[in-house]
Amino acid sequence: MAARAQIGVTGLAVMGRNLARNFARHGYTVAVHNRTYAKTESLIAEAGHEGDFVPSESTADFVASLERPRKVVVMVKAGAATDAVIDELVPLLEEGDIVVDAGNAHFPDTIRRERALREHGLHFVGSGVSGGEEGALNGPSIMPGGTRESYASLGPILEDISAKVDGTPCCTYIGPDGAGHFVKMVHNGIEYADMQLIAEAYDLLKQGLGASAAEIGKIFEEWNTGDLESFLIEITADVLQHVDAETGQAFVDVVLDQAEQKGTGRWTVQNGLDLGVPITGIAEATFARALSGSVPQREAGRAALPAETQGWDVKDRAAFVEDVRLALYASKVVAYSQGFDQIAAASAEFGWDIDRGAMARIWRGGCIIRARFLNRITEAYERDAQLPLLLADEYFTGAVGNGLAAWRRVVAGAAQNGVPTPAFSSSLAYYDGVRAERLPAALVQAQRDFFGAHTYRRVDKPGVFHTEWSADR
Ligand code: ATR
C-alpha cells in the first residue's frame, strides 16, 4: 500500500468519524480504520465524497498507508480500549511517529502512556477535544499536550481543523505529557460550575418571580445580548422555551430532576483536593448533581425537614432580574478564577508551563464554555501572565464590585426563602474569604495545636511554636 495519507484516524464512532471528515474537508488525505470494519465502510459510503479517505481493514495496512512521520489519531473509548489500540500500534510504528489520543483520558493515564511511548522513540500527544459531535465535524477547541517537537508537524493540521474566532485558531500547544488532557478536564469542571450557576439563576427566577419556563427563557435570551453572552446561556434560553410535544407542557418541567455525570467533574474535584486548590464552584456543582440523584435522602428530607419560610414576595421584579444577572456574572467569574488557579497549580506541580491567557483564547470557540467573557480572561493574563488571582485583575474587580450588593441580596434572599443556591452562595463565601483581612483559620490552627501539638506560627514574631495546653486546664 502506498503511504500517502497525511493523517489517520482509528476509532470511527461518532467523534472519530466526524474528526476524520473534518480533516478530509480541509483537504487532507485521511487514513481511516476501525476495529469493526463495517463502521469504516459506512463512513466511506456516507461521507466518502467529502474528501480523500484511505480505508484499511487491518491496523497494519492503516499504518502503512500513512506518510512519515505518521500521525495517528486514536479516538476510542477512554480506558482499556486506548491501551489496547496503542499496544497494537506501537510495534507497527517507527521512531518519530506521533500517536494522538483525542479521547477523554484521565491525565495520569496520559502521563503514563507518554512515558511508555517515549521509550519506543514515539511521540504521544494526549489531546483534549471539546465541542461534541458538532464541534468535531465543524471545528472543535483542541488542547494538545506532548512534545513541542510533535506540535511542529501536528499543530498546523490541528489548528487548521479547529474552530476559529476572529481568524485565530482555537488550538494551541498546551504543555508536556498530561497537560492537554488536564486542561480539558478543568474545562469540563468549569462547564459543570457554569451549568449549575445557570440552573440556580433559573431556579431563583422561578421561585422569586413565580415565572414560567418560557418567561425565564426570554430573560436568558435578553442576557445573551450582554456580558453573559455564551453558548450555555443561548441553549438555556432555547431549552426553557421548548415545549414537550407529548404533553404540551414546558419541556424542562417534564424532565426528571436528577442530573447525571460521566466523571470529569469528579476528577477535577479530586485533583483540586490533591493540589489543595479551593475549586468550590466546581465542587458544589458536582455535589449538586450528586444531591439531585440522592433519591432516598431527598424523599426522607422532603418528608421531615421544615422550611420555615413565608413564600418569596419580590416587589420590584425588574430589579430582581438584574440582581440575579449580576450575581450570576460574579459567581461565574469566581468559578473561572478558581479553575484557572487549578491550572496554575498543576502547571507548577508537573512543570507544564501552561499559558493561562492562551487557554481562555482557545476556549472562545468550538467548546461548550465558549463565551464573550473569555476575551476578558485572555486580556487579564496579557496584562499580567503571573496574575495570582483572576478575580483581582482590574477588569474583574470592577465587574464583580459592580454587582456585589446585588450578589449579597440574591444569596441572602435565597437563604431566607429556602432556595438552594450552593454555587452562588459558595462563590460569594469564596469571594469574602479570599479578600478577608483575617480568617478564623487562626482558631483552627490553635485547636490543632491543642489536641495534636501541631504547632502554630505567630503574627508578631517568626518561628514555630507550641503551647503547653495542660497548664490551662
Ligand atoms: P459507540 O460510541 O459506538 O457506542 P464505544 O463502545 O464507545 O462505541 O466505542 C467507541 C469506539 O471505540 C468504536 O470505534 C469502537 O470500535 P468498534 O466499532 O469496533 O466497537 C472502539 N473500541 C472500543 N473498544 C475497543 C478496543 N478494545 N479496541 C479497538 N477499538 C475499540
Would you give an account of this structure?
NADP(+) binds at residues 11-16, 34-36, 76-78, 104. Homodimer. Pathway: Carbohydrate degradation; pentose phosphate pathway; D-ribulose 5-phosphate from D-glucose 6-phosphate (oxidative stage): step 3/3. With 473 residues, this protein is α/β, with parallel strands linked by helices. The protein has 20 helices and nine strands. Helix 1 packs parallel to helix 6 (132-138), helix 9 packs antiparallel against helix 10 (231-241) and helix 15 packs across helix 19. The chain is globular and about 80 Å long. The chain binds 2'-monophosphoadenosine-5'-diphosphate. 2'-monophosphoadenosine-5'-diphosphate (ATR) binds next to helix 4.
